[in-house]
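Final report, results section. Input specification for complex C-07:
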Amino acid sequence: MVDSRKLKVDNGIKHILLYALAIATFIFILKWIQWKFLIVENAIHIYVGLIAILFTILGMWFTTQLLKPKTQTVFVEKHIIIQEPENFCLNQTALKKLNLTNREYQVLTLIVKGLSNAEVANELFLSLSTIKSHASSLYVKMNVKNRYQAMIKAKKMNIVK
Amino acid sequence: MVDSRKLKVDNGIKHILLYALAIATFIFILKWIQWKFLIVENAIHIYVGLIAILFTILGMWFTTQLLKPKTQTVFVEKHIIIQEPENFCLNQTALKKLNLTNREYQVLTLIVKGLSNAEVANELFLSLSTIKSHASSLYVKMNVKNRYQAMIKAKKMNIVK
DNA sequence: ATTTCCTTCATTCTTTAGTACCAATCACCC
DNA sequence: GGGTGATTGGTACTAAAGAATGAAGGAAAT
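Structure output:
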């Protein structure tokens, strides 16, 4: 029952569609003929128009080939951050006042680097005893109790890097 | 004598020039007439040609307007010198990476000041053993051998004043 | 409830730092 | 020639630092 009714409806729609298609085709043909006459009548204008379009494109293409691209220079600041550029300035006056001998100062610089007495001895090709001697005497001259305080004082006085 | 002979020559040249001019004018007129007929006969071609030229130029002009300029980026180095006179800025990131406990960091700050373990113990009201424990574990975490190196590393890493 | 981590403290032992005192060598100056 | 100071080195001793291990209490997470 449902199927037969559906079939009826389908047939109706089919006829309507066919009719519409016929009309559409007819209109299309008419329009086409109209266009054909238009083209025939305005052949010269269309020709000129096509030429214009063609040569416009040609001119554009030609230009892209010939024209050197204009360069626009953009300046961009590149920030380079420099951490204290070796601006260590040895405090000669303070160093002289301490009255350290050359060896003592040499030992001090290595102590400040964090080396142990044994390592300093190795570095300078000297015995541990010698380093201890120099270290002790430089502590007295710097008026400090041990290597840590010597380190801090030396850095504060700007007598070592 | 010299003058009269020169005059004769001048007269001869004048005639020749006039004659040449007449012929040239005649030829020019003829050519012009010929061109005129050519133009009339080929009016449509000339028209199309002019259109072509015009639109070629138009296309070229259009392209010059459309074409984006090629940007050239120039980096200008601007050096920014950062000095650290008093503006100590704690390096939180580095400090976190070390994974020190609160007490360990506290002990470190006092070690950096140059205090001995006994002094640190006094300062924090703790036993010497406790300070030694914290110190040892922070040396391991900082990957240093002793308090001097911890001092140097801590200052270099900007994790202490 | 158990585990994990932080904190605290202790003990033992080794290494390093520092003091004190001494001595040999060398260069320089009076 | 003798005095002075820098350099090098030694011994003996004390103090401090550091490693290794253990343990107990507490807070926080699972």
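The mean pLDDT of chain B is 77. Residues 101-104, 126-130, 133-134, 146 of chain B lie near DNA strand C (CB under 10 Å from a C1'). This concludes the modelling results for the funded period.
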